[in-house]
Backbone:
């Protein structure tokens, strides 16, 4: 008896039909998803890859420029040291020259001491 009731309930039930609006909306949603995936996402991803490559190149050029700048700074520091040494040598020569001129300008004192 219970089995008869269950069978009659299943058999008597009308067949459910899908509304065409839900089918059309699902198809439209699927098309929108595919558009976003292929028409918008993939080109954007390619552009991001190009920008990353360009950024990598910029960083490489920056590293090269910083290396050149460090070398230039080293050369400048070496030239400054050499210039300071030359200035010190020039000053020493100028003092020796002044001393020699003083010694030559006072011959009386030098010759009096020698006698």
Residues:
């Amino acid at each position: 008896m219970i089995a008869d009731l269950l069978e009659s309930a299943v058999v008597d039930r009308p067949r459910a039909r899908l509304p065409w609006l839900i089918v059309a909306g699902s198809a439209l949603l699927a098309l929108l998803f595919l558009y976003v995936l292929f028409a918008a996402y993939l080109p954007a991803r390619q552009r991001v890859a190009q920008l990353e490559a360009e950024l990598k190149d910029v960083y490489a050029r920056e590293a090269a420029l910083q290396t050149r700048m460090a070398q230039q700074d080293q050369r400048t520091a070496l030239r400054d040291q050499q210039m300071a040494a030359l200035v010190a040598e020039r000053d020493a020569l100028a003092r020796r020259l002044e001393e020699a001129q003083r010694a030559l300008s006072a011959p009386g004192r030098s010759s009096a001491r020698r006698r």
Q: What stands out?
A: The chain has a mean pLDDT of 86. The helical segments are 2-12, 20-105, 107-114. The CA atoms of residues 3 and 9 lie 10 Å apart. Residues 21-106 form one domain.
